[in-house]
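To whoever picks this up:

The nightly regression suite flagged PhoP regulatory network protein YrbL as changed. Nothing in the input moved, so I suspect the structure step. Input below, exactly as stored in the fixture:
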Amino acid sequence: MVTLHKTNYIGEGTYQMCYVHPDFNNLCLKLRKGIRTNKSRVDQEIKYYEKIQKRNIGFPFLSKYHGELETNLGIASVFDMVRDETTNDISASMYDYLLRDDSPFSDELFITKLKELKGVLVKNKILIRDLTAKNICCKVLANKSVELIIIDGVGHRDFIPMVEWFEILTRRKMNKIFDRKKLYSMTEHREWLAHRNLLY
Ligand SMILES: Nc1ncnc2c1ncn2[C@@H]1O[C@H](COP(=O)(O)OP(=O)(O)O)[C@@H](O)[C@H]1O
Ligand SMILES: [Mg+2]
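Regenerated output under the current build:
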């Protein structure tokens, strides 16, 4: 069993608390917040991850899932920790960069990178239902360019998974997600996130 301390804590979202593995700093351990209420969402995501990984696709634009691990705080889901190549620090999220006045990455760059990301997702017929700046880490590469890596929010809620079978349906659904979450303009996406934060 792995013992997690306060010092291993790196951050959290609505559903999970994230820790760095005390012995392997390239692994991110995620623990569910209210087990009962959020079980189904996280479980669905894990199932979807397993499905994608069986098809051997999704990398490097999704952080890799490595199964479960017992910790003193409960069962954790294990993922690759996204780190910058330049510093080996844990990569900041796109949200962190969008809030910074001195961000090294422009809104235009993020818009281009997001469109590229959508292209790869559609080609691989992968759905990311909660694609937002908070669920994307920006990995700074050695040459100072940036790679977007999705760390959360994968999957869809369709009972019959047609969107995983036909590229045209994946594209249609991802376009809808981009529209809904205002991902074609970072100014609008910032506003959308601010509004959504108020709701939680
Ligand atoms: N694989 C990872 N690599 C680096 N940082 C991560 C990783 N997974 C999560 N984080 C950080 O932890 C925060 C919350 O994680 P997330 O998986 O989005 O939780 P939730 O399911 O509650 O939304 C993220 O916004 C990010 O800053
Ligand atoms: Mg999240």
